[in-house]
Structures are given as structure tokens and as C-alpha cells.
Amino acid sequence: VYSEAVLAYNAGDNAKAVTILSGLIAKNPSVAEFHDLKALALKVSGKDAEAARSYTESIRIRRKLKRPASE
User: Fold this and answer.
1) Is residue 6 very low, low, confident or very high in pLDDT (cuts 50, 70, 90)?
2) Could you give the C-alpha distances from 56 to 11, 32, 33, 46, 48, in angstroms and in order?
3) If DSSP states are collapsed to H, E and C, what string results for 13-43?
């Protein structure tokens, strides 16, 4: 399903990407990559505050797992 979100984002269908990613996050909230892509899709859509929240959550998860953002 994540690949569908990536395809939607790459096609410029940010609303669809956010919807898919929100569902994935609801089921797997500790996957930083889901939050990263959601933040990108929100940022491109002009939803900066929501994007910041997603980025912040991604950072929190990575710090908890001690994984750098570049992975």
C-alpha cells in the first residue's frame, strides 16, 4: 500500500497520497517513512502546519529508534 502512496505523490495526487498515508499511520504509527512522505505531500499542498507536525513526528520516532533521517 505504501507504494500506492508513493505513486500518488509522484503523480501529483497529494490528497490521495495523504489519505493512503493517514491509513497506514493509523495502523503503523511508528514508521517514520510514512510520516516523511505525508509531510512532503502536505508541504506541496500548501499545508505547512500539518506538514510540520508530520515531520516532527518522524523526527521523534527516529530519535526514539536512534535512526538518522538519511536511512
Assistant:
1) very high
2) 25, 10, 12, 17, 12
3) CHHHHHHHHHHHHHHCCCCHHHHHHHHHHHH
pLDDT at site 68: 65
What three-state secondary structure class fits 60? helix
pTM of the shown model: 0.89
User: Which backbone phi and psi does 28 adopt, to 5 degrees?
Assistant: -140, 70
User: Rounded CA gap, 22 and 69, in Å?
Assistant: 20
pLDDT of residue 65: 84
Task: Name the amino acid, one letter, at 54.
Answer: S
